[in-house]
Amino acid sequence: MSFGDLKSDSGLKQLNAHLESRSYVQGYVPSKADADTLQQLKSAPEVSKFPHAARWFKHISSFAAGEQKSWPSAGGPPPKAAPAAKDDDDDDDVDLFGSDDEGDAEAERIREERLKQYAEKKAKKPGPIAKSNVILDVKPWDDETDMKELEKAVRSIAMDGLVWGISKLMPVGYGINKLQIVCVVEDDKVSIDELSEKITDFEDFVQSVDVAAFQKI
C-alpha cells in the first residue's frame, strides 16, 4: 500500500486519513506493511497536523526492530469481540485497540486527580506561626510598691503561646519606677487585651498596663 512520499506533508496527509479509522496499515494486528511504512518516515509526524499518523507512529515505534521483522505480510483476521453486556440491540462498534483520545482523556483525569491531591495536601500543611514581640509598661500605685513582687506576679501569668523575656525598671517621676517587660506571643493564641487584664488583676501592685511597643516577628 502506497501513500506517496511520506517525507512530505502530502504523503503524511494520505497516511493520516488512512489511519483515521484504522489501528494499522493493513489488518487488525501489526504487519510487514506497518514496518515498511515506518521505514519511509524520516521522523515522527506532527501531532497537531497528523494526529492519527502520530498515534500510529508512536505505537509501531514501541516494538523492537527484531520484532518488527517477524511480522507477517498482512494482518490476520480480527479477534472476536466479547458478547455485549448490555441490550442485544446495541449496535455500537467495539474499539478493539482503544484510541489515543481515550488514552489522553484518562491521562488528563489522572493528572487532574494528582494535582487536586497535591493542592489538598499543601492546604493541610501548617504555615508559619504568626508571632509578635510586645513591650509592656506596668505601673505601680506608688513608690512604696515592692517592684520585685510586682514582677514576680506578672511573670506568674502562664498562657499557651506566651513567653516572657527581659525586663527593667524605668523611672516615671517622684521616686516611682515602672516595670518595662518584654514578651513574645503567638497571635492566634494570646490576646494582648486579655493579658493586660490578667496583669491588672494584681490590684495590690498594679495601677495600669500600657503597650509601649508592638512588632510582628
UniProtKB/TrEMBL annotation:
The reply on keyword Protein biosynthesis is: yes
Query: Domain of life here?
Result: Eukaryota
- InterPro entries tied to this protein: eEF-1beta-like_sf, EF-1_beta_acid_region_euk, EF1B_bsu/dsu, EF1B_bsu/dsu_GNE, Glutathione-S-Trfase_C_sf, Transl_elong_EF1B/ribsomal_bS6, Transl_elong_EF1B_B/D_CS
Query: Region entry Disordered: which residue ranges?
Result: 67-107
GO cellular component terms, alphabetically, are: cytosol; eukaryotic translation elongation factor 1 complex
Q: Which GO terms describe its molecular function?
A: guanyl-nucleotide exchange factor activity; translation elongation factor activity
Which ranges carry the Elongation factor 1 beta central acidic region eukaryote domain? Answer: 96-122
Biased region (Acidic residues) positions are 87-105
Translation elongation factor EF1B beta/delta subunit guanine nucleotide exchange domain: from which residue to which, for each copy? 131-217
Q: Which SUPFAM superfamilies match?
A: eEF-1beta-like, GST C-terminal domain-like
- Classification via Pfam families: EF-1_beta_acid, EF1_GNE
Family of the protein in this entry? Belongs to the EF-1-beta/EF-1-delta family.
Q: What is this protein called?
A: Elongation factor 1-beta'
The gene name reads LOC100902529
